[in-house]
Design a protein that fits this description.
This protein is an alpha/beta fold and 337 residues long. It contains 11 helices and 14 strands. The protein is globular and about 55 Å long. It binds nicotinamide-adenine-dinucleotide and uridine-5'-diphosphate-4-deoxy-4-fluoro-alpha-D-galactose.
Length: 337
């Protein structure tokens, strides 16, 4: 039986997808340099599933190390999570982002081509829609980027389209994630941000656990139902199952295709705070402050294409997301450390 190779498999989304794959009876290899993760997440994935996986520490920029994986194991598909993802950091260190994300993907695809493994699921992002004007966002909406992180995702999308043009036997699913949050309901694996979190949900959970005094709500004068930013939050376990659906789809469908993975439902920052407080019976002190530069008022998906073609849709509610985020944080106040 052949393996599904996950680059970046020890990370937040990779570890939840590894769990879903093992639970579905797949054999899994993770290849991760642990820049933003550790092997502890994968130990817990194995504990939870009762199945083992192959955990390799390596960098996708290291062609030799990566080639060895293709030499050593029969691989049927690759899910490519490995990448740097902090928007602010990408503006300060653009070359690092382009090298890691773009050159790393080129490296991976060269080796996949060489070893005849031409089935790829790629982690793209709603960031490729830039400041979209039409809501909900359809896959055909215009693409643009406002920072090097977004540019790197957009460049990779172009590279994959060119690759498929040149070698039509590739099967590629480009998954554009909206806002992944939550954690496996066991509370054993979850998001483990370094330093001060940039994203809303980990910031809320760190306020709840007492690591931060209060949450700054960036902007209360947006043209939304309560003035705060609206996003399409998706539970990471739903997102994980979207990858299994994409792999199944690629078995039937040659070509390259693009899918929004979101719920289609927008919630505001205040909606999330309210839900978190109610479900977990915790007060979240917050202050309304000015807008964060670069943020859009609202961003939510039209997920109809994924529903139709991948036969996938989100199952978890906002209540599930805030409950599971807190369950992970309270059981692991210092993440995996
Ligand atoms: P993460 O940082 O938890 O996981 C990424 C993993 O890739 C980490 O374990 C990291 O150590 C590894 N990695 C980075 N560079 C590597 C390299 N050169 N070689 C080997 N491993 C490397 O992030 P995540 O939230 O799980 O995101 C996974 C993917 O999804 C990323 O490509 C990210 O850009 C994309 N994405 C994430 C979000 C989000 O909000 N979390 C939204 C849209 C898209
Ligand atoms: N927010 C706050 N306070 C915080 C953090 C966030 O009010 O401390 C607000 C933001 O202003 C925004 C909403 O919460 O209105 C969501 O912000 P996040 O930072 O959690 O998520 P973004 O939508 O800004 O960005 C996420 C990923 C990006 C990705 C983008 C589009 O972090 O990498 O979705 O997919 F590009």
């Amino acid at each position: 039986m052949s393996y599904v190779l996950l680059t970046g498999g020890a990370g937040y989304i990779g570890s939840h997808t590894a769990l879903a794959l093992l639970n579905a009876g797949e054999k899994v290899i993770s290849f991760d340099n642990y820049h933003n993760s550790s092997s502890e997440s994968l130990k817990r994935v194995q504990q939870l599933s009762g199945h083992s996986l192959i955990d390799i520490q390596g960098d996708i920029l290291d062609s030799q190390a990566l080639a060895q994986v293709f030499e050593q194991y029969p691989i049927k598909a690759v899910i490519h999570f490995a990448g740097l993802k902090a928007v602010g950091e990408s503006t300060a260190k653009p070359l690092w982002y382009y090298e890691n994300n773009v050159a790393g993907t080129v490296n991976l695809c060269k080796l996949m081509s060489k070893y005849g493994v031409k089935k790829l699921v790629f982690s793209s992002s709603a960031t490729v829609y830039g400041a979209a004007e039409q809501m909900p966002i359809h896959e055909s909406s215009p693409r643009s980027a406002t920072n090097p992180y977004g540019q790197s995702k957009l460049m990779i999308e172009h590279i994959l389209a060119d690759l498929h043009n040149a070698e039509p036997d590739w099967r590629i699913a480009v998954l554009r994630y909206f806002n992944p949050v939550g954690a496996d309901s066991s509370g054993l694996i979850g998001e483990n941000p370094n330093g001060i979190p940039n994203n809303l949900m980990p910031f809320i959970t760190q306020v709840a656990v007492g690591k931060r005094d209060k949450l700054d709500v960036f902007g209360s004068d947006y043209p939304t139902h309560d003035g705060t930013g609206v996003r399409d939050f998706i539970h990471v376990s739903d997102l994980a199952s979207g990858h299994l659906a994409a792999l199944g789809y690629l078995d039937k469908a040659p070509g390259i295709d693009y899918f929004n993975l979101g719920s289609g439902q927008g919630y505001s920052v205040l909606d999330v705070i309210k839900s978190f407080s109610q479900v977990n019976q915790l007060d979240i002190p917050y202050a309304l402050v000015k807008r964060r530069p670069g943020d859009v008022a609202q961003c939510y998906a039209d997920p109809a294409k994924a529903t139709e073609l991948l036969q996938w849709k989100t199952e978890k509610t906002l209540e599930d997301m805030v409950r599971d985020s807190w369950n992970w944080q309270k059981n692991n106040p210092n993440g995996y450390n």
